[in-house]
């Protein structure tokens, strides 16, 4: 089946959360970020509702949650900030991913490839399908692939509704600080379900909305209960939630084995 994606981050909607999570941008930067986001399409499925947008949201509501604004490619430096290694412990995140050496792994909302390049050595006989919707992010990723001589990271441009991956091909898909920005979460996750192998895993990493002490804007956080509800809506089964990360939920879901 042929489809095309998104998750990226251009709207990862899919975009890995970056820049504007902790800091406010000036008017010029806000306009630039808005211009870089893909246009929303009219939804007729009845899955979503609309209301006046809050300051950091788009006014589109899914299962009671207002979808946040996305971060554009101009926030790429925030994704690569040195403090991220200490504050978010991506090493622990990668160590906790359920990986096999020959797995096909989808990094949805891969951005610059910050995590893709860290996961790649864990699947030496496998492949990282690094999905993003922003061509600028993908270009940065390609430059890093050439610089580092990595041969198992494949940049893929998706759409806001589909990661554009082969059906029944993905052993593990992970989304780090990105899912809450998907403009079409139901469509995206429904498409991803078709791409997963039977028993394939989805790892969702999000800042906890339950913890007001985490200095992240509210719409860029998710409660564990909300995440479970939205994953269940597309047929994913919750497996476990790990608490080894200092500031983020690490939630594991699975496609049922039929």
UniProtKB/TrEMBL annotation:
Residues 105-200 form the Methyltransferase domain. It holds the Pfam family Methyltransf_25. Residues 39-51 have a biased composition (Polar residues). GO terms for molecular function: methyltransferase activity. The keyword Amino-acid biosynthesis does not apply. Keywords: Methyltransferase, Transferase, Ubiquinone. InterPro entries: Methyltransf_25 (IPR041698), SAM-dependent_MTases_sf (IPR029063). The keyword Transferase applies. GO terms for biological process: methylation. Residues 32-51 are annotated as: Disordered. PANTHER family: TRANS-ACONITATE 2-METHYLTRANSFERASE (PTHR43861:SF1), TRANS-ACONITATE 2-METHYLTRANSFERASE-RELATED (PTHR43861). This is Ubiquinone/menaquinone biosynthesis C-methylase UbiE. The lineage of its organism: Bacteria, Pseudomonadati, Rhodothermota, Rhodothermia, Rhodothermales.
């Amino acid at each position: 089946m042929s489809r095309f994606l998104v998750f990226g981050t251009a709207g990862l909607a899919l975009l890995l959360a970056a820049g504007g999570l902790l800091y406010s941008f000036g008017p010029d930067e806000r306009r630039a970020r808005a211009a870089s986001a893909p246009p929303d399409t009219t939804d007729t499925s009845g899955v979503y509702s609309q209301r006046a947008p809050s300051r950091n949201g788009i006014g589109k509501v899914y299962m009671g949650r207002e979808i946040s604004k996305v971060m554009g490619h101009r926030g790429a430096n925030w994704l690569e900030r040195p403090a991220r290694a200490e504050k978010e412990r991506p090493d622990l995140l990668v160590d906790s991913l359920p990986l096999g050496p020959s797995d096909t792994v989808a990094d949805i909302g891969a951005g610059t490839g910050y995590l893709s390049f860290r996961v790649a050595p864990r699947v030496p006989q496998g492949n990282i399908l690094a999905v993003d919707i922003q061509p600028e992010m993908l270009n940065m990723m390609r430059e890093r692939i050439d610089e580092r001589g990595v041969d198992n990271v494949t940049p893929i441009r998706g759409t806001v509704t589909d990661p554009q991956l082969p059906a029944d091909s993905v052993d593990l898909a992970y989304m780090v600080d990105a899912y809450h920005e998907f403009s079409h979460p139901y469509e995206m996750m429904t498409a991803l379900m078709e791409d997963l192998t039977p028993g394939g895993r989805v790892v969702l990493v999000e800042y906890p909305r339950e913890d007001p002490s985490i200095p992240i804007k509210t719409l860029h956080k998710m409660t564990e209960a909300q995440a479970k509800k939205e994953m269940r809506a597309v047929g994913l089964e919750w497996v476990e939630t790990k608490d080894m990360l200092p500031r983020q939920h690490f939630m594991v879901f699975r496609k049922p084995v039929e």
